[in-house]
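User: Some background: our group keeps a shared notebook of sequences we're curious about, and every so often someone picks one and asks for a predicted structure to add to the entry. Today it's my turn. The entry only has the sequence so far, pasted here. Could you supply the structure so I can complete it?
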Amino acid sequence: MQESVPPSSHATRSGSFSRILSWCFALLLGVAGGMAIDDWILPEPSTTQDYASQVAMQQLQQQLYQEQLEVDTLQGQLQVEQGTIKGLEDELQKMQLEKSRLGEQLAFYETLLPPGPQGTISIRAFDVEMMGPLLRYKVLLQRSMVNGKPFDGTMYFTAEGLRNGEPVSITLEEATAELAEGQELGTANAAVTAGKNQFPLNFEQFNREQGWLVLPDDFHIQALTMSILEGKTVRASRKVELNTTEATSES
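Assistant: Of course. Here's the predicted structure to add to the notebook entry:
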């Protein structure tokens, strides 16, 4: 004989099962909602990493661009410096070639000159030009080599002429004046004064000299003599006749 189950027991079991299903459904809804909220609030890890990588790459690109600008600037400066160095090297080479050419010419002309003892002073050129009360002179001196010891002496000028109708000989003095830049004695309207009457010389083999001499107002010049002194000894002299422009040499 079977036992019968009371209706109230079946109802109780059905209600419990329904409540369990409701709780499970609510739990699933809560989990799904939480996942949706997390996806909406927080970006995916892969998206955050991509953004950081892009920022780092842009920074590196900017740094690389700045470095390239500095490299281009340095290369430009290097090219300018290399061009300057090349120009100086070319100029130096030209000067060396010119020096060699002049040395060969000098050696050739020295073979044409009469031989003389070492230390002999020769006046190779002496030009004089009258410009009103002034004389402009240009001198080229040569000296035979003496073991590298330079010549140390003086140069002075003696003028022959007439003063008050009488023949006289006077030592001329250097013409000096305050000149503006670019002006030259003989062409400038400047007050000329007399300076020194002896001019120091110091050279080894060749020497060029030029300058101005002042003439006294009451003096009529006829000839000019240049003399080279070493101590008190006259080593060389040359006389220029200003009337005939003929020059004679005296040793």
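Suggested note for the entry: The radius of gyration is 54 Å. Residues 240 and 246 are 6 Å apart (CA to CA).
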